[in-house]
């Protein structure tokens, strides 16, 4: 593939060439099954193998403890902004939101829309993290939600903020798998796949088991994480092709880390070098 460009798009973002070539090889007949992953039943033994190994590889990569469920859910990270209050609060409950940019603000606004007592525990300037001792956490809050990397402003937490025993929920859409993460510090981690893991169409949610099963009674079935967990992420037809591609990348994943938004995990070193060269030339030209 000589006609590939260095694609710095914010997501959907580039995928490793090996993944695309493997998908191409499997496109018409997946491993001798006589059909494409796009055409096969999600109840087939082939797809069962695909989703199970994608989960197993992710568990290995992130060293996910056994008391966490790995869910493949739909509707993008944006839908989780609504699913989170439905799953983890009852009417009248409070939850805290740390807003450090556009995405955590959207999560906060969605919670307000659902009638949750969403408390703006801290609000940043879109450039830096408000000092931890300035946060106004609510006693008895059901969770603290924050965005680990604000994609637009590039505000990234160096590690999980300390919120004591309150369940911590992180939107890791733009830095998922870009660095080691201690999953045990979180109640839930979620990320849209389309930046660091695969094509658009699936969200990976890692949820501590004891938090499941307490959803509001009016929770739409498709937003209930317990339903997803009990059905192996196949309560309805999952985005099979997307999950298959995620599985291929997860297999070949090497953490590159370091740089921020739009240079996601699949960007090769040569692409970063080309960018650095361009930036140097740009600086000289505009100095
Ligand atoms: N959170 C973050 C941090 C994001 O960067 C994005 C997408 N750019 C979203 C949420 C929304 O994701 P989706 O398009 O999957 O709803």
TrEMBL record:
Domain Aminotransferase class V, chain residue ranges per copy: 5-251
Record-stated family: Belongs to the class-V pyridoxal-phosphate-dependent aminotransferase family. SerC subfamily.
Name used for this protein in its record: phosphoserine transaminase
Region of the whole protein represented: 2 to 288 of 593
